[in-house]
């Protein structure tokens, strides 16, 4: 036995504490209780006040029988209560399930049932969707209304959020989880089956990525962070805990629009923000009436579809500095960054944009990212040409998919997490996505399952086959484009298809263009989607010209 393995060198309470992002609040509230934590319209709260409110929330939920392993769902925009849920719910070992506010009632009902939600906190602006979702459940959860005086709506719950907090103890004592592998949150992502998959995060992984954000972005203490990235996206890429760790200020907007963004930057000296290409376009295309002058540089982190060179040039010309990242829900949000090298600053704008469009290299605290041949499991040549699948390994990888052991085992084949994204790897090690093996369309930062949309379209009596692919869009990055083959003698218009989808799908999932004709297929009848992806990029896609 090694001399370092004796019982006197074992882990104990003095030298080992489970990692948890909740601990970020304890230190910040102790050291900086007077600093501004929250700005939301006219509302201001200090870190001392936020700490007390989070403890009240945890205490009140515990008194109502919610504890370790119980799921607490949230349906709300970017508001202070969403931050309090990210910090307060895990205090009692409960699991936060922040839901996409753009989902339809049926999908929300599925998520609540699949995740065994014991409570649902819902902003009253979204009470209509929530009410319809809860009505579909045999065992509905405790519903708690978040009543925002700036946006009134119908109350559907049994208790209001502020009344719930009044039941709690502001001095509530909480401890970190006994095991850092305990579940912290549950996030749902679109999958090729059409049903969202429940991605399970641990306290350990969230803590590590929260710290990783500070390293990757070189963030100093006391950042002023503007919430334009939805907090339901991978728990806001772990930034609720990152900004808390650094005793920063969370600036909230219920809905991202150009003028409020520029007002927040100018009035509150915003230093950092994240967002999909749609937010970049809002900034780049803002009119003179919407913009405000400011005298500092705003760090902007973007993911999803690579930003066009024109957008990068436009936004950087307005005082923003772009960092391009890549990731998935399964890796806690971004886990790959286009790490910028100082010598690239001298490149022409177009060349800089091409560099920034690459997905990049692993985060500092992510162990490894490679591009492997999915058939052999071996690394593809680093030639910028040979395609393979992006794989991840490290501490910021999900625990697995909830109630889906087969999907989890498939995702973790051979000791890697297989992303489903096809890419090349350049000689310098930077990866660049070339296709999405999962057929996921990313529109405005939202994941859309093409198969889910296809299944809705083929419900129509006149449709024989349907294929949905991504079409480039200056505003949203990508939008769904549907290619439809009709049954012999059938007739159907684009408006017919879009109207049918209107009753079945959330707005962002509906096709924005429908092209009719014979779909290209293999000898076995498989639709050749790679040809359709190329065609969808044309100004006026026409299946008759597919071979041109």
From TrEMBL:
The keyword Ligase applies. One of its GO terms (biological process) is fatty acid metabolic process. Pfam families: AMP-binding, AMP-binding_C. It catalyses: 3-(methylsulfanyl)propanoate + ATP + CoA = 3-(methylsulfanyl)propanoyl-CoA + AMP + diphosphate. Its EC number is 6.2.1.44. Residues 27-402 form the AMP-dependent synthetase/ligase domain. The keyword Ion transport does not apply. InterPro entries: AMP-bd_C, AMP-bd_C_sf, AMP-binding_CS, AMP-dep_synth/lig_dom, ANL_N_sf. Residues 452-526 form the AMP-binding enzyme C-terminal domain. GO terms for molecular function: ligase activity. Keywords: Fatty acid metabolism, Ligase, Lipid metabolism. Belongs to the ATP-dependent AMP-binding enzyme family. PANTHER family: ACYL-ACTIVATING ENZYME, BUTANOATE--COA LIGASE AAE1-RELATED. This is 3-methylmercaptopropionyl-CoA ligase. It comes from Tritonibacter litoralis.
């Amino acid at each position: 036995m090694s001399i370092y393995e004796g019982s006197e060198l074992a882990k104990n309470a003095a030298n080992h504490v489970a990692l948890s992002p909740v601990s970020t609040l304890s230190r910040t509230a102790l050291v900086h209780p007077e600093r501004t934590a929250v700005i939301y319209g006219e509302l201001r709260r200090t870190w001392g006040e936020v700490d007390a409110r989070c403890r009240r929330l945890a205490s009140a939920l515990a008194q109502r029988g919610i504890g370790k392993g119980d799921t607490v769902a949230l349906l709300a925009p970017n508001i202070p209560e969403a931050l309090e849920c990210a910090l307060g719910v895990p205090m009692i070992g409960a699991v936060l399930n922040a839901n996409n506010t753009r989902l339809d009632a049926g999908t929300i009902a599925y998520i609540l049932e699949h995740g065994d939600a014991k409570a649902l906190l819902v902003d009253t602006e979204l009470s209509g969707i929530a009410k319809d979702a809860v009505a579909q459940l045999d065992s509905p959860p405790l519903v708690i209304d978040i009543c925002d005086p700036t946006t009134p709506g119908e109350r559907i719950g049994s208790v209001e959020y502020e009344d719930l907090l009044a039941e709690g103890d502001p001095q509530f004592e909480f401890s970190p989880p006994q095991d850092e592998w305990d579940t912290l949150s549950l996030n749902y992502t679109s999958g090729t089956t059409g049903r969202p998959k429940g991605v399970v995060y641990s306290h350990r992984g969230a803590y590590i990525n929260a710290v990783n954000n500070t390293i990757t972005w070189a963030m100093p203490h006391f950042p002023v962070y503007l919430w334009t990235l939805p907090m339901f996206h991978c728990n806001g890429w772990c930034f609720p805990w990152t900004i808390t760790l650094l005793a920063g200020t969370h600036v909230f907007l219920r809905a991202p629009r150009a003028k409020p963004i520029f007002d927040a930057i100018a009035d509150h000296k915003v230093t950092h923000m994240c967002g999909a290409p749609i937010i970049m376009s809002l900034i780049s295309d803002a009119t003179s009436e919407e913009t405000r002058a400011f005298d500092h540089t705003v760090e902007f982190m973007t993911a999803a579809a690579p930003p066009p060179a024109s957008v990068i040039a436009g936004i950087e010309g307005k005082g923003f500095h772009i960092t391009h990242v890549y990731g998935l829900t399964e890796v806690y949000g971004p886990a790959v960054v286009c790490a910028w090298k100082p010598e690239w600053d001298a490149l022409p704008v177009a060349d800089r944009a091409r560099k920034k469009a690459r997905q990049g290299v692993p985060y500092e605290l992510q162990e490894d990212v490679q591009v492997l041949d999915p058939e052999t499991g071996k690394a593809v040549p680093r030639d910028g040409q040979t395609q393979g699948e992006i794989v991840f390994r490290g501490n910021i990888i999900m625990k697995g998919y909830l109630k889906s052991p087969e999907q989890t085992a498939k995702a973790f084949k051979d000791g890697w997490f297989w992303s489903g994204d096809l890419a090349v790897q350049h000689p310098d090690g930077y990866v660049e996505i070339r296709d999405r093996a999962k057929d996921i369309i990313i529109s405005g930062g939202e994941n859309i399952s093409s198969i889910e949309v296809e299944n809705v379209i083929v419900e129509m009596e006149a449709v024989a086959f349907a294929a949905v692919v991504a079409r480039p869009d200056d505003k949203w990055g990508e939008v769904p484009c549907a290619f439809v083959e009709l049954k012999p003698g059938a007739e159907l218009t684009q408006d017919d298809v879009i109207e049918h989808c209107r009753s079945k799908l959330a707005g962002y999932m509906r096709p924005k263009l429908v092209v009719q004709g014979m779909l290209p297929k293999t000898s076995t009848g498989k639709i050749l989607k790679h040809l359709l992806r190329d065609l969808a990029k044309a100004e006026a896609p026409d299946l008759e010209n597919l071979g041109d």
